[in-house]
Amino acid sequence: MNKKAIVTAILLFVLGLFIFTACTSTSTTSTTNQQNSGNFDSANNQKEKISENKLETKPQNSCNTYTSKYECQSSKYDCEWDDTLCVPSNQSPNTYRPLMCSLTPGIACVDMKLDNQGINGKGRVKLTVLNAMSMDVDVISIDLEDCGNLNVKSKLSARQQQIFTIDCLQPFPKQKFYGQVNTTFKTSTGDVIKGRGMLVAKVE
Length: 204
What we know:
Elements: H1 3-57, H2 69-74, E1 79-82, E2 85-88, E3 100-101, E4 107-115, E5 124-131, E6 137-144, E7 148-156, E8 161-167, E9 176-187, E10 192-202
Antiparallel strand pairs: 1-2, 3-10, 4-5, 5-8, 6-7, 6-9, 9-10
């Protein structure tokens, strides 16, 4: 074999080695890029799933869409009416108000019972009213907010108590009721006593 043939063989060997190395490098880079692309797509899919789960599990608060106390308390959400706004129960101080029944000085509410056993399943309120004054009074009216009113002329003797029943216009929507009580009494001397109290009670 002459020198020219040897040189040609060496050149062909070097060229073949160079081509082999280049092809191997290209294949490795392509595989790496595919793996990176797959990892990127997988990460994006996981982010989208997490985002979708957050949207699905995010609590739906629609309390502020109600504009009346009755609609607020009747909603399927856990809402409470806070004076002028409908808010979630855990944001309303009304949820934690203690039970109470107040009327006006000299005439006390000593007991109350609320249920939905009234006419056609509507709400019913029974108030035990005590005349703590030393004179008789006439009970003219008892008006309970978001329930109804009792327009009667019933005499309540001094130091005596009596049960008054108010039939509401609709059922009580919640297990707890709170509302303003407006009363009108007239004493035996002709004086008219107008009271404004509060009723916070459990519905049985």
